[in-house]
Amino acid sequence: MSEAPVVVDDVVKRYGEVAAVDHVTAEVRHGELFGFIGPDGAGKTTLFRILTTLLLPDSGSARVLGRDVVTDLWALRREIGYMPGRFSLYPDLSVRENLDFFASVFGTTVAREYEHIAPIYSQLEEFNDRRAAALSGGMKQKLALCCALVHRPNILFLDEPTTGVDAVSRREFWELLARMRTSGLTIVVSTPYMDEANRCDRVALMQNGRILATDAPAAVAASFERTLLAVRSPDRYRVLLALRDYPHTQRVYPFGESLHLADDRAGIDAARASSEATAFLHDKGFTDARVEPTPPTIEDVFISRMSAVNAPVAAA
């Protein structure tokens, strides 16, 4: 059985006293769309820079397409496509000039690779003469993706590709990735948006340089270990404060237009938990509060795992 296209083994990268990547171990399988999910500062970009041969790890090892990212960097760079989080093309060059340049770096031409990039380039072609700096955020991302694909890489790394673009462009971009994935291309993406996790085959949740969980999105959500309740009230802030004193609150936090309350009793029936929380709030004067069971999301799991990691250790 061939080696997985990405194998990360106990990688550490420090900046002074800060561990940007803290003993990370992960594996990406052939042909999957794998997502590293986490907020700014989680270590995603540092990890991506290591995997794309732009940064040396302090310890541990990483292999991409069977090549060591430290000792085989020159051979590996011809086989990977990388789209950094910050727009890194030449702003004073036109759309076509940027594409021609990146194609020439890898010894090919846009004409030769046209069929390969056509699904994306067809949306940019009418703007061939427009300077890259004058493109919209969504169009800049599509141009950067074209430039990352023009040499037909065997794996694609996309660092926060949808950050800073509108919701429609975000959706279109993920639809492009889904179509590309059907060709068998392995795609590794990072994002701070928890809702984008469901677009991936598998995800790794990252925080403070560590991986909190790795699995399929549905399996990660299903790993939530407590009964979860959604609480709605016009007086949400005061209800939040009240629920912090509820005897069975493990954790309560804002979630969209509601509050999410995790009951601290393992295996408690959801209907009973909902009824008791409702009675508590009514006794506190919040008679308009509505409490009902709700299915956990990846964001709920992330908050739970992050809180567990950050919890103070009790003295022996």
Task: Write structural notes for this entry.
The structure is a single chain. This protein is an alpha/beta fold and 316 residues long. The protein has 2 domains: 6-216, Rossmann fold, CATH 3.40.50; 225-295, Alpha-Beta Plaits (2-Layer Sandwich). Helices cover 32% and strands 26% of the residues. The protein is built from 10 helices and 14 strands. It is elongated.
Q: Keywords, please?
A:
316 residues, Rossmann fold, Alpha-Beta Plaits, 2 domains, six-stranded mixed beta sheet, four-stranded antiparallel beta sheet, elongated
How would you summarize this macromolecular structure in one to three sentences?
With 316 residues, the protein is α/β, with parallel strands linked by helices. The chain contains 10 helices and 14 strands. The protein has 2 domains: 6-216, Rossmann fold, CATH 3.40.50; 225-295, Alpha-Beta Plaits (2-Layer Sandwich), CATH 3.30.70.100.
CATH superfamily of the largest domain: P-loop containing nucleotide triphosphate hydrolases
Count of separate structural domains: 2
- The whole-angstrom Rg is 23 Å
Question: How many angstroms does the end-to-end distance come to?
Answer: 47 Å
Q: Please tell me the CATH architecture of the largest domain by its name.
A: 3-Layer(aba) Sandwich
Structural class: alpha/beta
Fraction of residues in helix = 25-40%
- Total of DSSP H or I helical runs spanning 4+ residues: 10
- Low-confidence regions: 312-316
Output the CATH class name of the largest domain: Alpha Beta
In what range is the share of β-strand residues? 25-35%
Overall shape: it is elongated
CATH domain topology of the largest domain? Rossmann fold
